[in-house]
Amino acid sequence: MNQNSDLNSNKKGLININVGTNSIVILLIVFGLLLLAYRSDVLNLDYLKSLNQSLSFFIGLFSIILGSVFFKFWSFDRKSKFLLHLTEPKNIPKGSTTLYTKNNLSFAISYLSKVNAQELPLVLRQLGCISIFFLLALITLDNRGFSKVTDLPGEILQTSSDFCPEQLAVVEEQVPKAGCALILKAFELGYAKDLGECEPEKVEVEKLKVCEKRRKEEPYAHYFTRQITSFIDKSVVFFTGNEVKNIKKKFEAQLDQIEALTDYQRYAISAAPRASHHIWTNLPFPKPEYLHKAIETLLPGQCLEDFQNQTNTINATDDEKRKYSQYLEHAYGQLLFNPKVNITAGFCKEYTIHWNAEIDTCEQLANNPTSFLTKEKVLPEVELVFKRHDLAKTILSLDESLRKLDDVEPIDSSKETASESKSDDNTKNTVFNKNKIAKSEQQLRDKNELVSFQCFMRRDDGKSKTSQTTIELADTQFKVNTRFFPITDDGRDPQILMYKQFSSSMENKFRYTQYNSQSNIKLKDADSESTAITENEFLQQPSYRLTRLEVLKDADIFLGNEWILKRDDLLEVYPYHVHLKNYVEKFRVEYIKNHGRL
Amino acid sequence: MKQLTTPLILLVFCGLLAAETMPYQQQSRIDYIEKVLVAITSAQEKDIDNVNSYINVVDRNNCASNLSSLRTQCLIQYAMDNCKSLRSQKKKLNCELYSDIIVVNKLSEVVFIPRSERYQILKNNTGNSRQIIVNRLEQKYSRLVTQFSLTPEANCKGDDYQCLAQGLDKFCLDYTNQKSLSWQYCMSAIVWFIGTAR
Fold this sequence. Notes:
The structure holds two protein chains of two kinds.
Chain A: H1 4-8, E1 17-20, H2 21-39, H3 45-50, H4 53-73, E2 82-87, E3 97-102, E4 105-111, H5 122-140, H6 143-157, E5 174-175, H7 181-189, E6 201-202, H8 220-240, H9 242-256, H10 258-269, E7 276-281, H11 289-298, H12 303-308, H13 320-336, E8 351-354, H14 361-367, H15 369-375, H16 379-405, H17 416-443, H18 447-450, E9 451-458, E10 465-473, E11 476-485, H19 494-506, H20 529-540, H21 545-548, H22 562-565, H23 568-573, H24 576-594
Parallel strand pairs in A: 7-8, 7-9, 9-11
Antiparallel strand pairs in A: 1-2, 2-4, 3-4, 5-6, 10-11
Chain B: H1 2-21, H2 26-42, H3 45-60, H4 68-84, H5 89-112, H6 115-124, H7 129-149, H8 161-178, H9 183-196
Helix pairs in contact in B: 2-5, 2-8, 2-9, 3-4, 3-5, 4-5, 5-9, 7-9, 8-9
């Protein structure tokens, strides 16, 4: 400061200030922190008095150490490399950068200039650095925060749940029986001498187990070592015991059947058919053939929607050629797939009616099943169903072998306590899985229940006839029914006729009699003339015409009652739904005994 | 022309005879429904209510039976006897027509409100149980009427009962072919709703 006076006093009144940036930086930071501390109200004397001793000591230590390090590390103890000049332009040292010039006064900054700059004394600079960290600590730390920081290591190391309880709770639980609340209350009040049947059951006290958690007085290192040792022991037991061997065996067992497992999943995901039932008939397509094929191509999964919205009866077209095909299709949908009547007997996409077949179709099938099915383009689907059936059996046997591997015995008597509960769970799981597999095996249908072939042929000789042949496919015997049904103009309702004929064809054990009909049992024969006369007379009366229709509910046209079938007017208002629903239900009960899907 | 007269007369006679032997043919049904509609809309409300109450009582007592044929014949007989007490021939005829509707509605009650639903209604409600059942039936009838009114057959002029009967007949035939409901139940429910909606 004194050396520069010569330079500075060349002209009186002229400003010539040269200051080192080190001093300016320290002053600025201290000033900024002072302002912040003032705004944070930490320069309050009362607040400073409230600081606890450890915090005060920490702040002092922190500021001195870090302040000194900062002072040395940032070279605040040396001459500043950067200098700020506020003087006449001619006095600005060479190589300086002028930042601002006005009224013959320049403000510039120079680097490593030889001009002697003004600096704070060394002591003040060091004090400034210490002050910086002092104020920083004062602003950021308070008593609460400091205690949180100091307590943190202890909290990490010590959590109450990881400790063994000081006193082991031995509680005898008493489970009160349901419905005994009144008697218990009476006993408490002294109205009852004993509880009798309401005596609560005593539950076994939970067995005391050796506590493996950390004890309160146990050092952390000892606890850590104990945990490591225990882990190693358990690992050795695990890897040398039966469990790993079982896991390995189970894996190997599944690996051997990897192809089967993959196929099983693949077929399940791709919704491959789970059954395949085929009906050949010599009746023509119910719709024109081109339309039928177009629908099959463009709307392949239409059958679900079609059968969902079926009516109780249909008015077949006047086209004599297709009338019976339409009746057949209607009866087929009602008997097997209409969801309004309980559970459906099958999935419509797994059933196929082959129209326009030859009358000796089933004979051809019996002569050479494989080539016939190949010709009909049916064999791939049938073989796929067989394959899925075989896969199902393989999976079940795999499940059985895996279940056997799950029966793990305890390997060490000293470990009995620990493994007892595990073996109890294992036993329960074993029983459950065994029952599940046994049930699955029972429910797994035979191949001849999943695949069926029948022929339903029209014959105009006036007699219905059923014949049966047996074929062999995939080492399984299949019965092939052929039903010949007549169509004659004897006034009988063709729809009802079709139901009866088709249901007999699909399930020859199905019988529909008065005993499983919903009509009231009558002593008179349903077809007797006297019945017809009585009912007709009743319905002929001019009054209460709507009420009189009630008698039709008792007349099941599936059992005969020809007098109704001869009256077109009654057939228009006949309650088909009553007896049709019953007929279909009874048929399905019989049908699903011998037919189904995987 | 004179040569055609006799065959024409014979044809008409045969038609009438057929109608008599086939009382449930389409035209006969429509004519009957038309008469019922006229009867129920022209009758007094209190007369209809009286017959309704009477049929309710009779059904629970005299005509209670598990055999539907016995029950039906019994109800018809009591309804006929009830209508005989009226003096005017026209009133007797009207009485029989709307009694027919009332009896069919009584028989169809168990179809519109199954036993399980009836049990739930009575379990969850206190008060006049009969009135609650009646209200629920009205709701069910109104659904049928709503569906009918959305069909093109419902577009009839106010007093054109022939058109209305025709539309009702077609609607109920289609409806019962798709759903599990008898034709006469469908018809009576809608006719009752129309007739008593005053």
